[in-house]
Structures are given as C-alpha cells and as structure tokens.
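Project channel, design review

CF: Before we commit to the Pomacea canaliculata constructs, I'd like one complete example in the thread so the newer folks can see what an input/output pair looks like. Taking Cytochrome b5 heme-binding domain-containing protein.
RD: sounds good, go ahead.
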Amino acid sequence: MALRSHATINMKICLKLLTVVCFSVLIKGEYQLKDLEFNFKQGDPPPRIFTAEQIAEYDGSDPKKPIYMAVKGVVFDVSKGINFYGKGASYNALVGKDSSRGVAKMSLEPEDLTHDISGLEPDVLKALDDVFQGTYMAKYPVVGYMDYILDKYHDKFVQLKEKVEL
Ligand code: HEM
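CF: and here is what came back for Cytochrome b5 heme-binding domain-containing protein:
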C-alpha cells in the first residue's frame, strides 16, 4: 500500500514536471526576426550599398573617416559613439563590419563578429531586435545597407530608389 502511494506521488511529480517543461517550451516558442523597414524620404541621398571590404574602411582606425557598423545588414554611422567604438575603445571590434551575431549574444569573440545569425536561440534573436531598435535605430543615422540583404529586399530597394530620386 505504502509502495503504491509512493509510486503515485512520483508519477504526479513527473506529470507536473512534464507540464512545466511543455509550458516553458510553448512560451519560448520560435522568434521571427523583424523585417527591416525603409524610411527614406524624397530628396534623401540614395542609400549606399556596402561590400564587406568597403565597410571595413570605416573601422575607426583613420580619425579622418567616419565610423560605420552594420546590424542586421543596416549600416549605421556610429561616429558620435567614438567613446564606445573608436580605436582602442571597448567595442571597437564591432565596427567596420556587420557584427549582428556579437550584438545578439553580447559577445566580442572573433567568431561572433559576423552577420551570420544562424542557429541562435529565440531569446538571443529577440535581444538582437531590441538592441537594433532601441540603440542603433534610436541613436545613429542609417547610411546604407550591406550587399547581402539586396536579394531579400530587392523590391523594397527598387521602391526606395524611385522614392529618393523623384
Ligand atoms: C562586463 C561587461 C559589460 C559591461 C559592464 C557593459 C556595460 C555597458 C554600459 C554601461 C553601456 C551603456 C553605456 C551608455 O549608454 O552610456 C553599454 C552599452 C553597450 N554595450 Fe556593453 N557592457 C559589457 C559587455 C558588453 C559586450 C560583451 C558587448 C558585446 C557586443 C557589449 C555591447 C554593448 C553595446 C553594443 C552597447 C551600446 C553602445 C551604444 O550605445 O552605441 N557590451 N555597455
């Protein structure tokens, strides 16, 4: 009798644990990275398209050049954050490239200084969207886009080009 009730209690605990695990998986779910919005106005200079080599020229090593960094393929002029991003500053490793993975993971490890965000957990992807919107879009001017997002946003780029050139 004592054995049976022991087994029943164990089973109940297991069921409870299973419910908790299922519930947290449901809550966590998948996270769909937000699509980019293109908010250029008529008369704005046409956005520049950067290759990896081109953006690398703006890594803060030349004080006469602005400092550029890309997140989610959007290139920002982060020159006013020179204390973060200038030569020798804490986050200098992030600039002159698209460091989306590092920004998402809050990592400055060389292997994370890339635009490749494959395999990241939903909460890390959400963090990337939050920093993209809350820091970069809020603080720094957009100066262009990385060439590798051209395919995905081809139609939007065509509309954008027509709009700024009207
Ligand atoms: C001990 C670890 C860290 C501390 C104490 C720290 C602290 C801070 C603080 C206080 C700020 C806000 C500064 C301000 O707005 O005036 C900041 C901003 C920031 N941190 Fe960190 N941080 C750490 C590590 C990292 C790492 C590993 C990354 C890697 C990506 C990172 C990326 C950033 C970025 C991108 C900003 C925004 C800079 C901007 O406004 O342009 N941080 N950090």
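RD: helpful, thanks. Residues 45 and 68 are 17 Å apart (CA to CA).
CF: The chain has a mean pLDDT of 87.
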